[in-house]
# Entry
Amino acid sequence: MRSYEIAARWIVRKLGHVGLQALTPLQVEGFYADLARPDNAGRALAPKSIRNIHIVLRKALADAERLGQVSRNAAAIAKAPAPRRHEYSTWSSEDVQDFFSAASDHRLLAAFVLLATTGMRSSACDGRTSIWTAASWRWSRRLPPSATTSL
# Structure
């Protein structure tokens, strides 16, 4: 809900002066370009944020079109900004073997093996997410009451 409110504020601030029927795809694309341009402090919105704003604007105009308030959805016609694609590098099997050899005496070796061999995220492995709570709750439902105190 918070991201919707933020998007709505940007839309009203930058496009609020334009009437619904008068809004063109060119104005919408200019709006996106303006959001991507750094301000006086050197900050610009991230492509993902602009994409979220596009989604809110497109949906609002789709509702207005459905209700007969506009004859066309300018945001649906406008080209939305493309999200950034991230490049990820992975270790080769030789790199993993070298790492395991170097970490053979490390106290977290079991966690390293778990992360490297299952694809599990590090936050799940170190308990920063609720995966362990959910797993222990599920298992505690299957165990006799006397066994749940050790979980």
Q: What stands out?
A: The CA atoms of residues 27 and 129 lie 42 Å apart. The mean pLDDT is 82.
